[in-house]
Every structure is written in C-alpha cells, then in structure tokens.
Inverse folding.
C-alpha cells in the first residue's frame, strides 16, 4: 500500500534555525497531513493540505505540496527545544480514503 | 489532552495471558481506529470502526480481537501474543470515515511488552 517516505530520517539543528523535512509519496492523494510525536506519546495533528492546495501556514509551520512531483515539505521556522520530536507525513490516498503513514523524521533541536 | 484516552499506558504480559486495551473518545466522533507502531516501521493500520461497525481489518492475526460496543469506546482484546507483538498501540478517532476524512485524534498509546 502507498506510504509517505520522509527525508531525512534524522535531523539535528541549533535552536533558532529553520528545520525542513520532506515527504514523497507514490500515487494520487486527496490530502496530505503532517503529525508530530513526542517520544513514546501519541501523534498530534499539525496541518492538512488538500491536493488542490500548494502551500499552507500555521504559526511557525509552512507546508508545501507539489502534486506533479508527489512531494511535500514541512518547514519549522525559528526552532525551539520543544520542537524536538518525530514528524510524520500521512497521505489519504485517492480511492482508498485511509491514512497511510511514513516512518518519520526524528528532529532534535540543540539548545 | 487530546480527547482520546487509552488505558493502560503500559502493559507487560506473558504469551499465554489474556488482556485488553481500552480506548475512549470524548469528541463525539463516529470513527475509531487501532494502529500498531513498531520501531523503525511506519504506523500500521489494524482496524477501523465506523458507527460501531468494523469497516477495515488489515489482515491482522486473530490473536488480536477488536470490540466496539458504541461509538465512544474501542477495545483490543489480546490473547496468546508473540514477542514480536511488542509495540506501541495507538487508538485514534475521526469525525467520520470516507473521502476527505480529515485529521485523526490520537490517544497517548498503550506500550505493550510480550515476554
């Protein structure tokens, strides 16, 4: 089944820098979502972008979607220590309507 | 506080035990899900319920048995598990299922260790 694949698998940056994570997928989608997971906890929904949208903002988060390249990126600006977590993209596949998740990007913010 | 509560948070069981995981959502949603999260693997969808009716069963072994008595409660009954079943089991809910389901609301998970 289709899944999003995040890149990089792990990312460490200094506090205050911007963090960019990418997600690639394989087939047509209805929407793409990003989630955050703190260690050993549940996932928290961050943002949803529909297939007819190209960019979306929420606070310090910026998500882009390029359906021609079947890819999305999540940008976190002015990172904080509290942003340390794993970030997952999930695609709702066209014709399937079930969310499939990738393996995630582990983000570490160094104070 | 996500509105989805899972108990217990941690569970250790032997291969011959029978135990259950419980999930309760206070969001008025109609759909509930069980996911399995193992290290280095994507989240695996196990079961989906919509209005207490199972709509998805992703080839999950019969040693996992779900139960959805009403739209607010979801159980996962466990029996004769294997050590490879050790994982974080996540419950989630959404307003509905189908096209453009939207965001899922997850519980904190139940960390299961099978000895």
């Amino acid at each position: 089944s289709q899944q999003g694949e995040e890149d990089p698998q792990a990312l460490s940056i200094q506090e205050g820098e911007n963090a960019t994570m990418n997600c690639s997928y394989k087939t047509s989608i209805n929407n793409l979502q990003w989630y955050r997971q703190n260690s050993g906890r549940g996932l928290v929904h961050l943002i949803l972008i529909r297939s007819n949208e190209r960019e979306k903002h929420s606070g310090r988060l910026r998500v882009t979607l390029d359906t021609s390249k079947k890819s999305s990126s999540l940008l976190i600006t002015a990172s904080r220590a509290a942003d340390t977590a794993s970030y997952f993209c999930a695609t709702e596949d066209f014709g399937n309507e079930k969310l499939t998740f990738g393996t995630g990007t582990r983000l570490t913010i160094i104070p | 506080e996500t509105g989805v509560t899972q108990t217990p948070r941690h569970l250790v069981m032997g291969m011959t035990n029978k135990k259950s995981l419980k999930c309760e959502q206070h969001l008025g949603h109609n759909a509930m899900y069980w996911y399995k999260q193992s290290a280095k693997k994507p989240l695996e969808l196990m079961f989906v319920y919509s209005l207490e009716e199972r709509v998805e069963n992703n080839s999950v072994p019969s040693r996992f048995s779900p139960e959805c008595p009403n739209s607010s409660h979801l159980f996962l009954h466990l029996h004769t598990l294997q050590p490879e079943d050790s994982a974080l089991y996540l419950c989630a809910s959404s307003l509905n299922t189908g096209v453009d389901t939207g965001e899922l609301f997850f519980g904190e998970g139940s960390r299961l260790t099978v000895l």
